[in-house]
Amino acid sequence: QVQLVESGGGLVQAGGSLRLSCAASGRTFSIYGMDWFRQAPGKEREFVAAITWSGGSIDYADSLKGRFTMSRDSAKNTVYLQMNSLKPEDTAGYYCAAAVEGGVQYWGQGTQVTVSS
């Protein structure tokens, strides 16, 4: 199994920045990609960004390109989500997910981001 722990959420004013972290442990050798998703109250879960574990190929939701940057530190088994120019509509629970061999996906517990206007 893979365990994921997110951190870095909090309350920030509009225009500010936050960096979220997602640390993976356990069978990390089985991970082939990691994603960030977010979900606001009453809304569907939304894809934010994804990275391949080996090659570092990164993909973003079109609406977030230019403001959000995903990266990874393979030595620390950690991925990051740098969020700049935050807007109130970015308020949501942010979750990381790890895709492993066999099609299984593991999820973290999430970290809350609140952007005040």
Report what the structure shows.
The chain has 117 residues and is mainly β. 0% of the residues lie in helices and 58% in strands. The protein has strands at residues 2-7, 10-13, 18-26, 31-39, 46-52, 58-60, 68-73, 78-83, 92-100, 105-107, 111-116. The strands form two sheets. Strands 2, 4, 5, 6, 9, 10 and 11 form a seven-stranded mixed beta sheet that branches. Strand 7 (68-73) and strand 8 form a beta hairpin. The chain is globular. The N and C termini lie far apart (40 Å). The model has no long low-confidence stretch (mean pLDDT 95).
First CA to last CA: what distance?
A: 40 Å
Number of DSSP E strands: 11
Shape: globular
* Number of distinct helices: 0
Question: Secondary-structure element sequence?
Answer: EEEEEEEEEEE
Structural class: mainly beta
Q: Roughly what percent helix? A: under 10%
List keywords for this structure.
4-stranded antiparallel β-sheet; single chain; mainly beta; 117 residues; 0% helix; 11 strands; 58% strand; globular; 7-stranded mixed β-sheet
Task: Please give the structural blueprint.
Layout: E1 2-7, E2 10-13, E3 18-26, E4 31-39, E5 46-52, E6 58-60, E7 68-73, E8 78-83, E9 92-100, E10 105-107, E11 111-116
